[in-house]
Design a protein that fits this description.
The chain is an alpha+beta fold. Among the domains are: 118 residues; 163 residues, Histidine kinase-like ATPase, C-terminal domain (Heat Shock Protein 90). The chain has nine helices and eleven strands. It has a five-stranded mixed sheet. A four-stranded antiparallel sheet has the order 2-1-4-3. A two-stranded antiparallel ribbon has the order 5-7. α5 runs antiparallel to α6.
Length: 424
């Protein structure tokens, strides 16, 4: 039975994609760090309590010696013992009379215990009241007898060392946490930069490798058209569309690592161009509807924005089990000078708790796939087009609406963002 569970864990671990594994490793390391922090606090608290008990014992010894000295104030040997204890005393102590007035004190700040210019040597009542209040909050007082058996009460507070030791583990954890955060941010940035460079190199090499077969396919199509007199054949036309699509994909990869150029486009025309290509390669049971303003314009990188629409339409198709409808509605918000693009499907829907999660790397409901489509889509819209994308509405079993928000052309201002790595 144990072996079966162990094998099941291994199979589950191997079936996870790298993004899920990374997330679990981060969670494990966070829990491990929390365990170390808790152990450090617990261990420090043990020493604090031990030192607190020792100071309590020292205080009671001080009280007993002080009490004996007041009973035998003419005993020189006892006076020497008291002076020795007083010199080695690391605590602040106040002894009060029955009426609450100050009788004796020890260890307090000598610059504040007396008024500087007061010849009568009166105690600073404000300072002593503040110190006495702290002592009452920290520890129980000790009763003692003074000269002529006068009733006295002794108070004390934690030593400076004990006070510092109480806060030390939290300061230590704060410094460690700051160091870990700094190290994590630094290493993550370095790793991200390295990964981005690798990705850019792989993307450009992919574009280069695609160039040769695309050129060959173009030549073969021309040969087919010439040899079989297929200039008007719809199948050949679709083959040409696919080759053009491959050229666009190769162009996307070749431009990764470069600043995209945004140009003024009619949004309806850009989206309609891709929809016409996409719908003939999708099931006939899915109906595509493109509605809304046909004249609204926005600054777009057409190849990248095609990628956005492609990812959203693919997700919509995958969400529909058999037959259904995908509606794309383009709206111009004149008040805010924005272009709104709503893509609605009649698919499975998304739980409200997953509205933000769907854009995270690695999130997917399919058995195959890396869960990067919507992550890439969000970054293209937000980082390159300075827009927004979010789940506007969704209901399980009825469908989902994604909304893209772009600034219309009249409000566009050139961006200096060259963060190409955001596509990674």
């Amino acid at each position: 039975m144990v072996l079966w569970f162990f094998r099941s864990d291994i199979v589950f671990w191997l079936s996870m994609n790298p993004y899920q594994k990374k997330k679990r490793w981060k969670l494990f390391l966070l829990m491990f760090a929390a365990l170390i922090g808790a152990a450090s606090v617990f261990y420090s608290d043990f020493f604090v309590k031990k030192m607190e008990r020792e100071e309590g014992t020292q205080f009671l010894l001080w009280v007993k010696v002080a009490e004996q000295r007041m009973k035998m104030y003419d005993n020189e040997q006892l006076s020497e013992v008291f002076e020795t204890i007083k010199k080695n005393n690391k605590m602040d102590v106040i002894i009060t009379k029955a009426d609450g007035s100050i009788y004796l004190w020890d260890g307090l700040d000598t610059t504040k215990t007396l008024y500087p210019d007061n010849k009568t040597k009166q105690y600073d009542s404000v300072y002593f009241a503040r110190q006495l209040s702290k002592m009452k909050e920290q520890h129980q007082p000790a009763k003692m007898k003074g000269i002529n058996d006068e009733e006295l009460t002794a108070y004390y507070k934690d030593s400076i060392i004990l006070t510092q030791l109480r806060f030390f583990p939290y300061i230590q954890l704060g410094v460690i946490a700051l160091f870990l955060i700094t190290a994590y941010v630094g290493f993550s940035a370095a790793r991200r930069a390295e990964r981005d460079q690798e990705f850019v190199g792989m993307a450009k090499e992919t574009a280069h490798q695609l160039g040769t077969p695309i050129s060959s396919l173009m030549a073969w199509v021309e040969l087919i058209k010439t040899r079989f007199d297929a200039e008007e054949d719809p199948l050949v036309a679709e083959m040409e569309n696919d080759i053009q699509r491959l050229e666009i994909i190769a162009d996307r990869f070749s431009k990764i690592g470069s600043k995209p150029i945004l140009e003024d486009h009619v949004v309806h025309a850009v989206i309609n161009g891709f929809v016409q290509y996409f719908k003939v390669r999708t099931s006939d049971k899915i109906n595509f509807i493109l509605t809304g303003d046909k004249q609204v314009r926005a600054m777009l990188s057409a190849p990248l924005f095609d990628w956005v629409i492609e990812n959203l339409l693919k997700n919509a198709v995958n969400a529909i089990d058999n037959d259904g409808t995908i509606t794309i509605n383009i709206i111009e918000n004149l008040a805010k000078e924005e272009v709104l693009i709503d893509i609605t499907d009649t698919g499975k829907g998304i739980p409200r708790s997953k509205f933000d999660t769907v854009f995270q790397p690695g999130y997917t409901t399919r058995k195959r796939g890396w869960g990067l489509g919507l992550t890439l889509t969000k970054r293209i819209v937000e980082n390159y087009h300075r827009g927004q994308i979010f789940v506007k509405d969704s209901e399980l079993g009825k469908g989902t609406t994604f909304r893209i928000v772009l600034k219309s052309s009249i409000t566009y201002e050139p961006t200096t963002n060259t963060g190409v790595s955001s596509l990674v």
